[in-house]
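[[Per-residue structure]]
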Amino acid sequence: MAEPGRGGDGGGMDGAGAGASAAADAEALYASAFVWDAHAGFESRPTTDLRNLSIWKDAGVDFLSVNVGYDVRPWTDTIRVLAAFRRWLEASGEYALAGTIAEVRAARAAGRMAVAFDLEGMNALDGSLDLLRLVHTLGVRQILFAYNRNSVAGGGCHDEDPGLTGFGRAAVREMNALGILIDCSHCGYRTTLEAMERSRAPVVFSHSNPRALRDHERNIRDEQARACAATGGVVGVNGIGLFLGEDDIRTPTLADHVEYLLDLVGPDHVGIGLDYFFEADVDASFQETLAENEDYWPREQYPGGAVRCAPPSRLRELTAELLRRGRSEAEVRAVLGGNFLRVAGEVWG
């Protein structure tokens, strides 16, 4: 980052010059950083147009975790989506399906965006550890226990949370053994604490914001964030306006959530999981899903209206904003992707 007052003639730099220098520093940092987005929120169907992955690639994202199933869908849909997405990615020249950190790094070196899959809830496993092993073989590297409502594995954040079920406890052991990231986003408070206590590997909240800044049931309490950090894990800041504030997706608000977590759990445990979705999904596919499964989005928590999310292109602005606030280059690199890269390397093996 440019030193204050540095100029070609040894004197002070004017406001415009300082601003241009700061912008250039931020852009250089972003270009050299490893950028990891821990979760995409678009509707996963076999017919999903994956050409829209260019939204992330054009924004300079190096790795993206793509959802291939969640609790509102039958488990058979997950298998169909995995088959379709794998076929498309294998045929593409711009993207690489990656299951190891070596493959993630190789994709970046080749100018391709690395992709792995995640599941939002374990209903997609139909209560079967055999299916858990199968989806790992097919590229799933991150799974959460429940999506908003209670599942076969544990409690959701908008439900009466019973904690981990017997299947959920068995899944923790199996995920540790296989090398799958345990994800506590969307899950109930008790379920998350039990999962973090039982796991032998780092646990993540791939896309969850601090409830201290926005009192929404989808956000997490300070105790949950601290427990995540104690496992060696990472909390990924979510870009959805409803979870940032009153439909607020401004870059300073996103930075507020990042900074709150940096101060709470330290620079080794904060990352990005924007949960960005294709706008066409919200207009069509998601509205259909919502109409069929209204209980997953309680009206008192989701009052209706447009849903907005900070796009991946906003990450460049976030970089500049965090630097402007005095965060070090090392901290910003860690948030942009270094932390998730480290944790995935520890868990995936």
Notes: The beta strands are 36-40, 63-70, 95-97, 113-120, 140-144, 181-183, 203-204, 235-237, 270-272. The radius of gyration is 20 Å. The longest helix spans residues 329-348.
